[in-house]
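Sample intake sheet
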Amino acid sequence: MENIITISFDDIDSQYGGCTTHFTGIFLHEIKDKIKLIDYPLLVRLNPGIPWKTRGNASTALRFIYDDPKEIFEIAKNLVDEYTNPRPPSPNKKPGIVITQGKVWEDENFKNFYKKALSDVVLLDETINILEKNKVLYYGGKGLIGATAAQGSLGLYEPYTFELIFYRLPDNWNKDRCVRDDLVLKIEKSLPACSINNYDYIKEKTSVKPNGPDPILSGFRGSCEELLWKYESSLCETPHFALLFRSNQHTSYGLFNDVHPYPYRNVEIEGYVSNIKILPKGHVIVSLNTKYGMFDISFYKDTGPLNEAAKLLVNGDYIKVQGSVRPYFYNSNPTISAYSMEVIYVNQYEKEFSPRCPICGSRMKSLGHNKGYRCEKCGFESKYINKLKIRIDRRLLPGIYMPETGELMHLQKEKYIQLPILTSLNYVNINKIFKVYANP
């Protein structure tokens, strides 16, 4: 009987470089002649609001057929130690490895753990508890949280996307990345509507290059895996290797829940706008009256269209916000950092103006409450003239408002992209998803 193994990793990066996805490619290259893949390598994004997350808060997993999980486990441990020794992990971080057998993505314990890790805080103690309870092989420290979440991720009937990641030769790690923006745009325009968050049309630049010393050259996201390889021609630097991942990023699956907004949770919350403050640097703070009480919603300037829409809100508008709850002081309103906003109801309001004089047309002046108006220019006076009430047309319309491309959170879905749904697992040809360009 064929033995299904899932091995997952997290926290194999640090401030000194390295990357969990990069390590996954190296590990796959090490074992590829031993195994039969039954799924694409998985890139699993988790709660973006967690402050102690890794840079992209992503774990990885491989699902394959092999007889001896202990042999695979030992290979993984040795390779992790070899990979991380030149770059020790950050304080309070330690790589995590988890290895299971069977269709773990159908196990309710692991599925629920994954869903919690998408939108809430998960502690190491509860992670160890589920691993011990299920008698699985594991190794490491805090990285076990993300690695355990990856075990229950991306099961059947869940939406998914792809990311094709090109990795750099080690000699280039501290050099500027070379990806041609003009060619990325040209390829983008040639594709059907399946490219996701690769080019920022407002800033006229790509959003495929990371910053920092990690080994990633570029990552191209979309829902059409074979067409993503076209972006290869935009590279003006020879990669080390490339690996195609299946991912939960840009699906919004399980990201937001209508739950009590405790710190670091991702929530969906709605209510009436009661106050708007535009800060000197362009950030917008909106006070929202919700069923949980009063919240301050922050719309940061770099979110572009989302920030501009927030500036057009007025008291009485009814909105729904998706975002991450920030830590807050006892005597202040809790704050939610907004990822998106749906304007459900736009409040129609009127402005009042002093009436014009019927004799000379000048603006009249009030004589006091219910005492009428007097024209200071011609002296006409009447107590039967009322204020003018003019309805103000709103520039803000009901609808969904998102950040500009390039500012989307990893898990946020773009509005108009149709995503595939997984209905079955099939064997994957490693040579079609893993390509080596040059040896170090």
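Comment: The radius of gyration is 27 Å. The helical segments are 20-31, 69-84, 108-119, 124-133, 143-151, 181-190, 305-311, 430-433.
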